[in-house]
Design goal:
about 15% helix; about 240 residues; Porin; 1 helix
Length: about 240
């Protein structure tokens, strides 16, 4: 009796390849890098467009545009890193880290006390578990509302946007959605300049969890954080 050796084929007549699984696995990191690159380009284009729009909307009235710049302290978990597994079993994004940096925002008050704000910030620190240096840049936009009384102004805002984080540890390099809600206090020291001693924001984002081996991929873990900012406000 003679047996014929048949070459296995995939569905729809596609040739079978033992390397097909490997090729699909290698495409995922490449697609992730391409997506993060597109997000960075989108951020570079979008932020100036929003700032120019705010200036145009509020240019008809004086003292309707506020430019803030100053120091920022952010405390949030940047992630676990590729050498530490967390998230699935502990529902944790890893220990929080304190990161110093800067914060700047442009707010245009388009109708009385109601305005639109664009905020850009950068913070730098070290992840607690992997001891890797991380650089974080956030770009957010949203509504703002201010109440003014004599030389004092109290404001609140809700901001939505993205966070791009980079590190030598690839498990700490990602681009994710982030939201912030908070407010602060301004004290006028001249007709055009105010001092902002405090701005506090609550932050919420997700961080990727690197899977070290298991039957199913690990989902992203949520991270809660806070940001303190202080600096100078210039009115136009």
């Amino acid at each position: 009796m003679t047996f014929l050796a048949l070459r296995p084929t995939a569905i729809l007549g596609q040739p079978y390849s033992r390397e097909s699984g490997t090729s699909r696995a290698t495409k995922a990191p490449i697609q992730t890098v391409q997506l993060e690159a597109r997000m960075r380009r989108f951020r570079i284009v979008l932020f100036p467009v929003v700032c120019f729009s705010l200036l145009s909307l509020a240019s008809a009235q004086s003292d309707r545009v506020e430019l803030f710049g100053g120091y920022s302290l952010e405390r949030i978990s940047p992630g676990c890193g590729s050498n530490y597994r967390c998230g699935a079993s502990t529902s944790s994004s890893g220990p929080a880290a304190s990161m110093n940096g800067w914060n700047t925002s442009l707010t245009g008050f388009v109708h009385k006390s109601f305005g639109i704000s664009a905020q850009l910030s950068g913070n730098y620190g070290t992840a607690a578990e992997s001891y890797s240096r991380v650089n974080r840049y956030s770009y957010q936009f949203g509504p703002a509302y201010a109440v003014r009384w004599q030389r004092t102004s109290v404001f609140a805002h809700a901001l939505f946007g993205g966070i791009t984080q980079s590190s030598a540890d690839q498990g700490l390099s990602y681009t994710r959605f982030i939201l912030s809600a908070g407010g602060g206090l301004d004290y006028k020291i001249s007709s055009r300049i105010s001092l902002r001693p405090v701005q506090l924001d609550y932050e919420r984002q997700t961080v990727p969890v690197v899977d070290t081996g298991g039957p199913t991929p690990l989902p992203s873990a949520g991270a809660n954080g806070f940001r303190y900012s202080a600096g100078i406000v210039i009115k136009f």
